[in-house]
Amino acid sequence: MQSLLVTNDDGIDSAGLRYLVEELASRGLEVYVVAPASQVSGASKSNSFTVKVEKRKLEGAREAWAIDGRPADAVAIGIKALLPSRPVMVVSGINIGPNMGLVDFFTSGTIGATIEASLLGVKAVASSYAVLRGLRDEKDLRGLRTASMITADIVARLVDVIYELTDVDIINLNFPRGEPKGITIAPIANIANIEIYNGEDGNTYHVLGWRTDDLSVAYSGGEEGSDVDVVKRGYASLTPICIRCLSVATYPVSSLSKLKEALAGLL
């Protein structure tokens, strides 16, 4: 059986990771989990010099470990040291918060894990639920479960064919709050939504995060058809990324046609 390595940047106890592991396992996929012990959002693809590992039990996972490091550490240690064999894919998420646009791409620990996987020659999927203030109510929990189910469906479709997509290293998914109207293939928005503001004491600057819980305000702009645009319109975005191409806003037509064929009925 082909195995998956699941990680995140919200920590091993996050509902997003738990839901995702359950959904992947229910589709007959062998799941291993290596994830940070606590939240390390914004870690990007940074690595630690040393990392401690602790064995955990997690529903749906064949084996699970928590680490005191970062998402990229989890991927490297999982692939090179902990898993009994090389995983066919790395799946990172479900992140509680959006990972859309170029700023998020280069900041996100969720995506950083998939970049680490790509550099190690393993295809990867990142998945995020685009809420700004965490899970606030039952609607969010239902939406998170839906995002987990759709992500698992996509992974199950791709697990046997993703290495035929030679120009696609990472697939980045973003889901709107609640139920998505559908799934749309979209490039990464070229926006710089970095908000710097001073805290109440006058000496503390906030760099990651927003003062608003309105996604349209926090992610203002975004080209028509981009990941930011489609998610704000209620659709889930699916963005194929070629790390080796160093071109994050475009994707090769040859691989795109194969991707659409593999996901026929979902898109």
From TrEMBL:
GO terms for molecular function: 5'-nucleotidase activity; metal ion binding; nucleotide binding. Residues 5-187 form the Survival protein SurE-like phosphatase/nucleotidase domain. Its EC number is 3.1.3.5. Binds 1 divalent metal cation per subunit. SUPFAM superfamilies: SurE-like (SSF64167). A divalent metal cation binds at residues 9-10, 41, 95. One of its GO terms (cellular component) is cytoplasm. Its cofactor is a divalent metal cation. Its main location: cytoplasm. It comes from the Archaea. It is found in: Cytoplasm. It is an enzyme of class 3 (hydrolase). It catalyses: a ribonucleoside 5'-phosphate + H2O = a ribonucleoside + phosphate. Pfam families: SurE (PF01975). Belongs to the SurE nucleotidase family. NCBIfam families: surE (TIGR00087). This is 5'-nucleotidase SurE. It comes from Acidilobus saccharovorans (strain DSM 16705 / JCM 18335 / VKM B-2471 / 345-15). The lineage of its organism: Archaea, Thermoproteota, Thermoprotei, Acidilobales, Acidilobaceae.
